[in-house]
Design brief:
Blueprint lengths: L1 H31 L4 E5 L9 H10 L4 E4 L4 H6 L6 E6 L4 H6 L1 H13 L6 E7 L3 H4 L4 H17 L7 E3 L2 E2 L3 E2 L8 E2 L4 H14 L3 E4 L2 H7 L6 H4 L10 E2 L6 E2 L2 H15 L7 E6 L14 H17 L13 E3 L48 E4 L5 H12 L21 H15 L13 E4 L54 H11 L8 H11 L25 E3 L6 E3 L27 E3 L6 E3 L76 E6 L5 E6 L22 E8 L8 H15 L3 E7 L1 H8 L8 E2 L3 H5 L4 E6 L3 E8 L8 E9 L3 E8 L16 H15 L4 E7 L4 H4 L9 E2 H5 L8 E2 L13 E2 L2 E7 L2 E9 L8 E8 L2 E8 L7 E8 L1
Organism: Tripterygium wilfordii
Main location: membrane
Catalytic activity: Hydrolysis of (1->3)-beta-D-glucosidic linkages in (1->3)-beta-D-glucans
Length: 992
């Protein structure tokens, strides 16, 4: 009976043990899949600690992942029964034996893996190191070695626990900038294709060694140092992929995405990138001036925080690549250059080379001593400079400045230097003591001495559990309160707290505890602020009856309608934060209901015309804004150059002032005037076609600039029933710059000119949707289905009012941008065949590392291919964004009988369809004037009547703001908005 009575308890213990074990196993597995930062351990060190001391050191530093360049038995034994995971490596000099013999591979696994596993947690085998680039003669052995080692792991039933891969140099990826155009070196395809298929099949990572340091060194003056060091770049230095419009704030993310795009080009999309090496040297010779302790500290500290932030990359925000830092120790036995011996975080005796700033990244790397550092104002800096820095810290810097307000604990001593020290340290601690966060343009310095004094405890102080002024705060009217019947009166100080963070926290609390449970929303919000200890208090009344309603019953305060800040009536009649006047009770809600975007940093609602938040100056995301700075603009960095298609920043540095070869003929029209027509009532020369198609000189008076007179009309003859119009327009895939209004204006041009066939370039899915909902859409047949439109980031599209015989598309085999030839065959009255084709030929995209990605060869080949495809037709019109540069690409390839419509009908006129001088929307860009868009024709049954430019006029009443650097001063320009950055071309033909 006794055993029967204990049976339920035994079952319970048994199932509890099973459940607990399963839960722990699942939790452990989840931890194993979390992104991590590991270290490479090289052993070319003269005074390297013993393996036992090495492992103890790793444990003290909380390092959980290491990579060895071999399979050192002493280190593997020392790692036994620790939780440190290790990658072992097959040295390059052993590839021949392992790649030539399955038995050798099995023996290697037996000696170097099975002998230690599972006591030593071996997670992967790295087969060689950068074999394809360092010893290409051994490349054919790489896949046989990988397959043989994997087979040995399968035989030991360890293939699911231990992965097999090989680290590659980043140089196997060609044209890495912009990432969407990247691809693996095609000479390696015979190896990369089966290798990626193997990695996909076995769930193994693509191991890549990626060094932003070398990218920067090879492109000094081109790639900003801040981008390489993970420092937040200025808007002008953000890297933008022109094909995807993804923004890159650091070089490493761009390199990782380049690897993903390269794999995608080989139809592999399920392999994760593992960065097996990345780092920054702390010392170099005279040729390596950027190999410094400060840069090494900054890079590795920011790298660690970047990984632990788990923000992924712009292409894959859901995937954060783990990274192994190169390296743990300085390998002082390495041969020159000097930097080769100075990549380590520590010296061989385990003393740190520099102190990492990785606060907020858990306990990883215990050499972070920043918990004992503070940021204070420098004694040698003048008060005016310190005051300016203090204003920034308490304003845009969002430091907590509540404690330096009158009556608060850190108000005394009441001087700017003391107040600034508290504000500087508040910002420094808030930023996790990150490198560069204690600078304030030279007004601040780091100290290890605690600046706290009396009751004033600085934010970074180790002193704990102080009772703030001995006050105890109790709240009323809140269901959150643990003492719901307690009451307190509150008067909010009109100081400048870190208010830009308040709204986010308020919103979260309101979602959890809706404000409908409180007397009113403002009461609830302000009580929350006090509860969160984010606003100071002046006094606490003891009579609850005098404080009912809190601030709302206080006639001495008012809430700003714009930014919600609580202002005192004793102040000037404007909001202290945003300077807005109080809104009258009967004010119209129209302004508040206007479309706005919400700042992700402070949640402030900004007008769509603002490219930066009015409150905290945070740049707006592309997805939520329609007025960002022009992606082609480099005005914030006067040394940068803007070329056609090079929206991927940073761009090449200018070599000094040079004349633009395209403007030397002086045939430029000033901003605000029409192309070829002066903005006056004086007589001007125009060219008119006679009946034989020849040009005559003539006079035409009173030509005025108006929205209907967009260009000189070469032929004034009225349209006839036999006349056909073909429009080509690059609509510009900039979705963030007034896309809806630009497309509406473009639609009005279509309705005005009523083209029979339309050729669009750079149409995005969203632009397609806008067109599809337009009133003019129903008149046309479209070459793109809704499904096809949703499958591409942007594309060419053709529309036809005429009966369509067929639509077709032919991809260019040499295009890395997915460019193709689009053709529509239409039925014309009289049964005369007519083919209209369009394309967006390969774009010039100069970018690091070589700056030679002008793609002229590809573009010329594509033009020849297109003409060759089209030449069989008796009547052909080929128009589009050819990206053509006569100086770079030569003359456009035309067969006998083919003509360039602009040259034939507008001889002597430049024909610039991309013109930063006349297109005022592009003001601030470097002068760039090119005839990118063209019509070339071969017509047997038709004759060219005229060719005109359209879309030269700004959209009435519409503008956007853009920053421009003028004489070292950043100015905000208000610029007009045009339908596109290109002008459109309208070709008119008629039957012979």
């Amino acid at each position: 009976m006794g055993n029967s009575e204990n049976t339920p308890m035994l079952f319970f213990i048994f199932f509890f043990f099973i459940f607990t074990s399963t839960s722990l196993s699942t939790a452990q597995k989840d931890r194993d899949t979390e992104p991590f930062v590991g270290v490479n351990i090289g052993t070319d060190v003269s005074n390297l600690v013993s393996p036992t001391d090495l492992v103890s050191f790793l444990q003290v530093q909380k390092i959980t992942h290491v990579r060895l360049y071999d399979a050192d038995p002493d280190i593997l034994n020392a790692l036994s029964k620790t939780k440190i995971r290790v990658i072992v490596s097959v040295p390059n000099n052993q590839l021949l034996a392992i790649g030539s013999s399955n038995a050798s591979a099995a023996s290697w696994i037996g000696r170097n893996v099975l002998a230690y596993y599972p006591e030593t947690l071996i997670t992967a085998v790295a087969v060689g190191d950068e074999v394809l680039t360092t010893i290409p003669s051994s490349a054919p052995l790489l896949m046989p070695a990988i397959e043989s080692l994997y087979s040995a792991l399968v035989a030991a039933n360890l293939h699911n626990e231990i992965k097999v891969s090989t680290p590659h140099a980043a140089s196997i990826i060609l044209d890495p900038f912009p990432p969407s155009q990247s691809f693996f070196n095609q000479s390696l395809s015979s190896i990369m294709v089966p290798m990626l298929q193997f990695l996909s099949r076995t769930g193994s990572p693509l191991m890549m060694n990626m060094y932003p340091y070398y990218v920067y060194m090879e492109n000094k003056g081109v790639v900003p140092l801040d981008n390489a060091l993970f420092k937040p770049p200025t808007p002008s230095k953000e890297m933008v992929d022109p094909n995807t419009l993804l923004h890159y704030t650091n070089v490493l993310d761009a390199m990782i995405d380049a690897a993903y795009y390269s794999m995608k080009n080989l139809n592999v999309t399920d392999v994760v990138v593992l960065v097996t090496e990345s780092g920054w040297p702390s010392k170099g010779d005279s040729k390596e001036p950027y190999a410094t302790i400060n840069n090494a500290d900054t890079y590795n500290s920011n790298l660690i925080k970047h990984v632990f932030d788990q923000s992924g990359t712009p292409l894959h925000p859901e995937i954060t690549s783990s990274v192994y830092i190169y390296e743990l120790f300085n390998e002082d036995l390495r041969s020159p250059p000097v930097s080769e011996a100075n990549w380590g975080l520590f010296h061989g005796n385990s003393t740190p080379v520099y102190l990492l700033h990785v606060s907020g990244s858990g306990t990883f790397l215990a050499n972070d001593t920043t918990n004992q550092t503070y940021c204070i104002a420098m004694d040698t800096v003048d008060s005016k400079t310190i005051q300016a820095a203090l204003d920034w810290a308490c304003g845009p810097g969002r430091a907590n400045c509540s404690e330096i307000q009158p009556g608060e604990t850190c108000y005394q001593p009441n001087n700017v230097r003391s107040h600034a020290s508290y504000a500087f340290d508040s910002y420094f601690q808030k930023e996790g003591r990150a490198a560069g966060s204690c600078d304030f343009k030279g007004a601040a310095t780091i100290t290890t001495t605690d600046p706290s004094h009396g009751n004033c405890i600085f934010p970074g102080s180790m002193k704990k559990n102080r009772l703030k002024n001995g006050r105890k705060v109790v709240f009323t009217g809140l269901p959150l309160s643990t003492s719901p019947k307690a009451h307190v009166g509150i008067e909010i100080a009109t100081c400048n707290p870190p208010w830009v963070l308040l709204t986010q926290r308020i919103q979260k609390r309101e979602e959890e505890h809706p404000s409908k449970h409180t007397p009113n929303c403002l009461n609830f919000k302000m009580t929350l602020l006090l509860r969160l200890n984010l606003l100071p208090t002046r006094y606490f009344a003891t009579n609850p009856s005098k404080t009912t309603g809190l601030l709302l019953s206080n006639p001495m305060s008012w809430s700003c309608k714009k930014c919600t800040f609580i202002n005192s009536q004793s102040q000037k009649p404007t909001c202290r934060i945003c300077l807005s006047p109080p809104s009258p009770p009967s004010s119209s809600p129209s302004s508040s209901s206007a479309p706005k975007w919400s700042c992700k940093a402070c949640t402030f609602s900004n007008p769509y015309r603002n490219s930066n938040c009015e409150m905290c100056n945070t740049r707006a995301p592309v997805s939520s804004l329609s007025c960002l700075d022009d992606l082609k603009d480099t005005s914030l960095d006067g040394e940068l150059d803007s070329s056609v298609g090079s929206v991927f920043l940073p761009l090449r540095r200018c070599k000094g002032k040079t004349k633009n070869p395209d403007t030397e003929n002086g045939d430029c029209v000033e901003v605000g005037k029409f192309r070829g027509v002066k903005a006056s009532n004086e007589d001007v020369n125009v060219k008119i076609l006679d009946d034989d198609g020849c040009f005559e000189s003539g006079k035409k008076g009173g030509v005025e600039t108006s929205s209907k007179a967009e260009a000189v009309m070469v032929n004034e003859s009225p349209a006839t029933g036999s006349e056909l119009k073909i429009l080509s327009y690059n609509v510009w895939f900039r979705e963030d710059l007034e896309m809806y209004k630009r497309m509406k204006a473009l639609g009005e041009l279509i309705q005005l000119h009523s083209p029979d066939v339309i050729c669009f370039q750079e149409v995005t899915p969203n632009i397609f949707d806008i067109f599809q909902q337009s009133s003019w859409w129903k008149e046309y047949h479209c070459s793109i289905s809704k499904e096809m439109a949703c499958s591409r980031p942007y594309f060419c599209m053709q529309l036809s009012k005429l009966p369509v015989k067929s639509f077709s598309r032919t991809a260019f085999s040499n295009s890395i941008m997915g460019r193709e030839l689009c053709v529509v065959e239409v039925e014309v009255q009289g049964h005369k065949p007519l083919v209209v084709a369009t394309s967006h030929l390969e774009s010039p995209c100069p970018a690091p590392p070589k700056w030679d990605q002008m793609y002229s060869k590809e573009r010329v080949e594509q033009a020849n291919t297109a003409v060759d495809i089209l030449k069989k037709n008796p009547n052909v019109i080929f128009g589009g964004d050819m990206n053509w540069d006569d100086k770079l690409d030569g003359q456009f390839p035309l067969l006998d009988g083919w003509v360039d419509a602009w040259v034939a009908r507008r001889p002597g006129e430049n024909g610039w369809t991309y013109d930063t001088k006349t297109n005022q929307m592009l003001s601030g860009n470097r002068t760039l004037q090119k005839r990118l868009d063209r019509f070339v024709c071969n017509l047997r049954d038709f004759r060219i009547n005229r060719i005109d430019m359209i879309g030269l006029e700004a959209i009435p009443g519409l503008s956007y703001f853009k920053e421009k650097k003028v004489k070292k001063e950043v100015k905000k320009l208000e610029l007009p908005v045009l339908p596109s950055d290109h002008y459109g071309l309208l070709l008119t033909i008629f039957h012979r």
